[in-house]
Amino acid sequence: MSKKLLLKHAHVEGIRTFDVYRKHGGYESVEKALKMEPDAITEEVKTSGLRGRGGAGFPTGLKWSFLAKPEGVPRYLVVNADESEPGTFKDRYLMEYIPHLLIEGMIVSSYALGANTAYIYIRGEYSWIPDILEAAIEEAKAAGFLGNNIQGTGYNLEIYVHRGAGAYICGEETALLESLEGKRGNPRLKPPFPAVKGLWACPTVVNNVETIAAVVPVINLGGAEYAKIGVGRSTGTKLISACGNINKPGVYEIDMTITVEEFIYSDEYCGGIPNGKRLKACIPGGSSVPIVPANLLLRTINGEPRYMNYESLAEGGFATGTMMGSGGFIVLDEDQSVVKHTMSLSHFYAHESCGQCTPCREGTPWMFKILKKIASGQGTRNDIDLLWDVQRKIEGNTICPLGDAAAWPVAAAIRHFRDEFEWYIDNPDALTGNYGIGNYD
Ligand code: NAI
Ligand code: SF4
Question: What is the ipTM for the molecules in this complex?
Answer without folding.
Answer: 0.96
